[in-house]
């Protein structure tokens, strides 16, 4: 049975909750058609985040990895297309790091494409009535750092990986004008994303991997 590792970040920026972490708590052990979901909690600290996920990959030996983070202001679940080799943090991470215009890997490529079937994921969620659209920017905070760093970590393997951003929860957005999505919808969306990944294996030698 194939494993899909889904990771979720802890709260950051003074918040008490992160929908990514709340979702993975509910997804751990969930059965898929042909697979099972395993999960990992991730610190919002750039190097510790990569360490936590790489250790989870080594422990679980998944066929696919879906890293997940919140994106305030988005009204849909958004599979990311590309990670760029740049850290430019608008706020400090939870370790107090705030790099400005620093490469993630000075010897790495400019960017990496997702090796998840992002169009198939988007289609499956939309067909299920869940707002979903492909995004072409993962930002330059810890989400992008993880997206790029794990793609780099997995570059010589056949493990598929990509990043998905999710909206805020209603309780996070209640005092703002930002859109939100219920936790149940986010959980189901991520479950469907994992199922679509199993059903639509992407050949990582075709149009994926690094951008020189």
From TrEMBL:
- Gene3D superfamilies assigned to the protein according to its UniProt record, in alphabetical order: Peptidase C15, pyroglutamyl peptidase I-like
Residue stretches in coiled coil: none
Record's superkingdom? Bacteria
One Gene Ontology cellular component: cytosol
For the protein in the UniProt heading, the enzyme class is hydrolase
The principal localisation class reads: cytoplasm
List the CDD domains hit by this protein, alphabetically. Answer: Peptidase_C15
List, in alphabetical order, the Gene Ontology terms for molecular function in this entry. Answer: pyroglutamyl-peptidase activity
Q: Which reaction does it catalyse?
A: Release of an N-terminal pyroglutamyl group from a polypeptide, the second amino acid generally not being Pro
Kindly state a single biological-process term from the GO annotations of this entry. proteolysis
- Show the SUPFAM superfamilies listed in the entry: Pyrrolidone carboxyl peptidase (pyroglutamate aminopeptidase)
Q: List the keywords (alphabetical).
A: Cytoplasm, Hydrolase, Protease, Thiol protease
Q: Does the keyword Protease apply?
A: yes
The active site of this protein is located at 80, 143, 165
Task: Identify the EC number(s).
Answer: 3.4.19.3
The record's subcellular locations are: Cytoplasm
Under HAMAP family, the record lists: Pyrrolid_peptidase
The family classification in the record reads: Belongs to the peptidase C15 family.
Q: What does this protein do?
A: Removes 5-oxoproline from various penultimate amino acid residues except L-proline.
The subunit structure is: Homotetramer.
Listed name of the protein: Pyrrolidone-carboxylate peptidase
Its source organism is: Grimontia marina
| Top-level taxonomy | Bacteria, Pseudomonadati, Pseudomonadota, Gammaproteobacteria, Vibrionales
């Amino acid at each position: 049975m194939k494993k899909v590792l889904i990771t979720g970040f802890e709260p950051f920026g003074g918040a008490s909750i992160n929908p990514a972490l709340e979702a993975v708590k509910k997804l751990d052990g969930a059965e898929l058609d042909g697979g099972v979901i395993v999960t990992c909690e991730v610190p919002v600290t750039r190097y510790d985040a990569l360490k936590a996920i790489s250790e989870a990959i080594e422990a679980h030996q998944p066929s696919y990895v879906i890293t997940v983070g919140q994106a305030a202001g988005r009204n849909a679940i958004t599979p990311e297309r590309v990670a760029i080799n740049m850290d430019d943090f608008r706020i400090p991470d939870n370790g107090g790091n705030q790099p400005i215009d620093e490469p993630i890997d000075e010897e790495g490529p400019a960017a990496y494409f997702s090796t998840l079937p992002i169009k198939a994921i988007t289609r499956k969620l939309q067909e299920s009535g869940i707002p979903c659209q492909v995004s072409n920017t993962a930002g330059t905070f810890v989400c992008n750092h993880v997206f790029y760093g794990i793609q780099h970590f997995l570059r010589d393997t056949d493990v598929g990986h990509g990043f998905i951003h999710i909206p805020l929860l209603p309780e996070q957005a209640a005092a703002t004008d930002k859109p939100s999505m219920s936790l149940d919808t986010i959980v189901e969306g991520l479950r469907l994303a994992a199922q679509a990944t199993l059903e639509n294996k992407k050949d990582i030698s075709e149009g994926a991997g690094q951008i020189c």
